[in-house]
Design brief:
The chain has helices at about 10-30, 40-60, 65-70, 75-85, 90-115, 120-135, 140-150, 155-180, 185-190, 195-215, 215-235, 240-250, 250-285. The chain is mostly helical. It has two domains: about 35-70; about 75-285, Orthogonal Bundle (MetI-like fold), CATH 1.10.3720. It is a multi-pass membrane protein. Keywords: Cell membrane, Membrane, Transmembrane, Transmembrane helix, Transport. It holds the Pfam family BPD_transp_1.
Amino acid sequence: MTAVVSPPRVGAMDSLADLPRRTARRRRGELFPAEPANWKIAVTVAAIVLGIVLAWELLADAGIVSVFFWSKPSMIWRSLLTNITKGSMIADIRFTFTSTILGFVIGVLGGAIVGLSFWWSRFYAKVAEPLLIALEAMPKLALAPMIVLALGIGLPSKVAMATAIVIIIQILNAHAAVRHVDRDEQTLLYSLGASRWQVFTKVVFPATLPHIIASFRVAIGLALTGAIVGEYVGSQNGLGKMIQLAASTFDISLIWVGVFTLAVMAFLLYIVVGVIERILIRLIRG
């Protein structure tokens, strides 16, 4: 009885081993699209904005878009120049910027400190968490008149509004980061004779810091929102006050000036805070 011998597979395993690498190399562009160049993104965004502005101007000139209700880019540009040269727009921008930055700094630092303090007592954390969630769910616009009445129409009430919106989010974010700290690392340090303070400084704080820093870009937008709400309720300065005044006089062009200025300010703050965030995270990770 003759045994059936399979033909030898010379190099079969080598071919199979090489196949995935060749396939991945050919399909890399489909599986992992390359990041677009920054200049392409900037040019595309600029083209979209320019197209919208041009279409808006042409439709307004043709009478399709009501100039009374929507104004038009050329009128908005003239209003911008007038308020920069003859109005108080520079002072309003400075006022809103100051209240936003102060509210951001106080809210982020205060929220991080309170959130990190939850690590020291589970009872304290369990008692405070539902109260914080209730405060977060409460509409801040309803609190704005009381804050303005208590602190006045100056800068402190705007900083307080910005802080009130930022700090609750930061507390909850820091608390969530604390709860996800590796318990095995904490147990290891305790077994080596470390104190609670040493565990906090060597494990808990370094582990939660990247999560706190990663929320900066969200916090700066919330701080700007809080400052504008405070200005809109009652203020002598600020972009929110300028928009409210323009609305009361039906100056649509000035309303758009305020809205576009806020959009540019929010974008610039987002970019700057994002750069700071990346630098800090890179320094932490070494």
